[in-house]
Specification:
By secondary structure, the chain is an alpha+beta fold. Helices cover about 50% and strands about 15% of the residues. It folds into three domains: about 1-30; about 65-300, Aspartate Aminotransferase, domain 2 (3-Layer(aba) Sandwich); about 305-450, Aspartate Aminotransferase, domain 1 (Alpha-Beta Complex). About 45% of the residues are buried. It binds pyridoxal-5'-phosphate (PLP).
């Protein structure tokens, strides 16, 4: 493929991404082509996936370089590898930014993902709370000196813990705090965890902490989905997790709008153990991702980010309202965060059919179980919608009305096909073509007015 010459007026972002793709394309053209096509795809579909966003070009570019070539096991100033001076500077800066943004006593920015952050937190809490000689031995030693027996002890300890969940109240689909308290008194858990990926409401973390204190549990919040709303000070007081929890885990790529990755915030007491996450439970840190986390954390501490976070929530409330005006059933009747959960059963559809029909009409979102879903987690009875990405594009209340009308139109025009036994299919459907193309046209029109990465011309 011939390299495009940047024009005199091309933006720095355009020049950077064109050059990067030319270099990648010279090595393996089909990968460069897929990267280009992915931008085209994201530019031509309304992104309503609640866990996705659009990171800034600065965040994206911080990831694509030779920091990726470094091994940096350990923590700043305490590495198992030589030559980590620049990684130390970057990681220290990211830690400092995370602590000040979230008001945390300690931050650990190495987890590769939200799940990895949870593993580190579980490890830290177990080490502090479970009385076991093998764990004490583990903590006293340098990780490189651990024996096979030490590891076996750790594996047994981690594997022997019982997990249980609490579901929402069946009438309201809301968390029943009295039920949480009752169950906690019965079970007396070591660790009480609050967090969600499809609950469309706020959680009162003060109440959770009171319950944890009453039963002697450590209180952990997984804020993977709503970290951006915490950073943007939408969630304050009882709803602010860092002040109430002993330990908080998160992703950095959802509402926080950073690179794909994870992070742990905790009290000083847990800091030493949390910092040993790598190499105890994580592979080597990803210095290029940590660099991008620092950039994203800096962006999230700017006043504009608070405005952004507020708009995410306003947009979700407006979208929930508009969907209901269009005859769509919204679980809990609204939203207090970035998520709107739709029940598609009244349309005679499964979540899978709704998801596929909407995607064919220019809307990308994902199917999701609703409370007490009888269709299981593959077909589901729901659709999860999120406003972080469209809010990054600049959309507001008027656009939420338009999106609600597009979605309602597609769902109304979609019907399940019949299986050979005459029952409605859970997967196959028909979508009326004029309705599909009208919806697609409206989605494209919106995207034309709110372009993705307008500073980048490929
Ligand atoms: C998304 C999510 C995770 C997982 O994050 P990954 O980076 O995909 O590992 C963990 N917990 C919750 C609540 C999430 O929503």
């Amino acid at each position: 493929m011939k390299a495009q010459t940047p024009t005199a007026t091309a933006s720095p972002e355009t020049i950077a991404f064109r050059a990067a793709l030319d270099v990648v394309g010279a090595a393996l053209p089909e990968v460069a082509d897929s990267i280009r096509q992915e931008l085209a795809d994201q530019r031509s579909h309304l992104k309503l996936i609640a866990s996705e966003n659009f990171a800034s070009p600065a965040v994206l570019l911080a990831m694509g370089n030779w920091l990726s070539d470094k091994y940096a096991e350990g923590s700043p100033g305490h590495r198992f590898y030589a030559g980590c001076d620049n990684v130390d500077a970057i990681e220290s800066r990211a830690v400092e930014l995370a602590k000040s943004l979230f008001g945390a006593q300690h931050a650990y920015v190495q987890p590769h993902s939200g799940i990895d952050a949870n593993l580190v937190a579980f490890w830290a809490v177990l080490t502090h709370r479970v009385e076991a000689p093998e764990l004490e031995r583990l903590n006293a030693k340098d990780v490189r000196d651990l024996s096979a027996e030490d590891w076996e002890g750790l594996r047994r300890k981690l594997g022997s813990q019982k997990m249980m969940g609490i579901t929402v109240e069946p009438q309201t689909n809301l968390i029943d705090y009295d039920e949480v308290r009752k169950r906690a008194r019965e079970e007396r858990p070591l660790l009480l965890i609050a967090g969600y990926s499809s609950y469309p409401r706020r959680i009162n973390f003060r109440t959770f902490r009171e319950i944890a204190d009453e039963v002697g549990a450590t209180f952990m919040v997984d804020m993977a989905h709503f970290a951006g709303l915490v950073a943007g000070k939408v969630y304050t007081g009882d709803f602010e997790p860092v002040r109430h929890a002993h330990i908080v885990t998160t992703t950095t790529h959802k509402t926080l709008r950073g690179p794909r990755g994870g992070m742990v915030l905790c009290d000083a007491e847990l800091a030493g153990t949390v910092d040993r996450g790598c190499p105890l439970v994580l592979g080597g840190p990803l210095p290029h991702i940590i660099a991008a986390k620092a950039v994203a954390l800096h962006e999230a501490s700017q006043p504009e980010f608070a405005t952004y976070a507020r708009r995410i929530v306003d947009n979700a409330a407006a979208l929930a309202e508009a969907l209901q005006s269009n005859g769509v059933t919204v679980v809990t009747g609204g939203s207090e965060n970035h998520i709107v959960l739709v029940d598609v059963r009244p349309f005679g559809l499964t979540g899978r059919q709704g998801e596929a029909a909407l995607r064919s009409a220019g809307v990308t979102l994902n199917r999701n179980v609703i409370p007490y879903d009888t269709n299981g987690s593959w077909y589901t009875s729901g659709l999860r919608l999120g406003t972080p990405a469209v809010t990054t594009l600049g959309m507001a209340a008027a656009e939420m009305q338009e999106i609600a009308a597009i979605i309602a139109g597609v769902l109304r025009a979609t019907a399940p096909t019949k299986t050979t036994s005459g029952k409605p299919s859970l997967a196959n459907y028909t979508l009326d073509e004029p309705a599909r193309s009208q919806a697609e046209g409206r989605a494209r029109d919106l995207l034309g007015r709110f372009p993705l990465y307008p500073e980048i011309e490929l």
